[in-house]
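SAMPLE LOG
Freezer: B-3
Tube label: C17
Construct: single chain, 278 aa
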Amino acid sequence: MTTPLTTLARPEAFAVISRNTTLERFDRNDLNVTNGARAERLLIERLASRISASCDEIAAFTDVDSALTAIVAQFVVGRRVVLAQPARDTLASKVGVAARRVDVTTWPIDGDPQVASPESRRTMLDSIALAAKDADVVVVSTPVLRNGLARTALGPRELLRLRSRAPRPLLILDLLDEDLVPEPLTQTAMLLPGTLILRGFGDAWREFGAATVARSAFVAGSRELLASLAALANTQRVPEVLAQLVAELDIPEIDRLTQIAARRARAEAAARRDFRGD
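STRUCTURE (predicted):
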């Protein structure tokens, strides 16, 4: 069974780590098989600092598919699921196979003619919330990619509205492509109970020498949800991979460079959208 690369849940890790926190430096030359736990801790600290979370609210995975497989195995198998479409193909496929019942709903995507007015968008959101009341899990991907363009499916206000209308089910948010839109959801989602967030890094990291990070993913959520995810059997720690992830996250200026690349990608996508009129 696929399991998290690593999770950390220690009493001393309860403090939130922000982007302004000074993180312990890491030297690849210090790594050996016996001190992989240090690389593990440093990796979790770096991921937590990206979203101002505590270390026990983070689970790291070497690749996106492993993260999706673990989430579905732990939280979807045998349950009633509302799947908002459009969704990531691999996620929708795994959910369809594992869930006891899947109710597919249409999610309002920016640019769709049927959600041109705020009133029609609210109507669609309310219908999804109504379906979610009888579900165990709600799965949403935002943004979604259409013809190479990132379309926002859910903004912070709409996320809060959905959660207030359907407070019971677990909400799984696929935010892997969040850097492609100007309005992030992670910080809002972290404040909501019963919410699990899947995050990634994207191709921009590969362009700046961080191919291992570009393939990786991490899951964020409450300590209770992450402890449940970590309970999957026999977590495999690979010191060399942990060290490579930490080293790439520490590449000088890489955050600034990838943020610039993400802004450029958003601007180019907006220009293509305006040119095509969609």
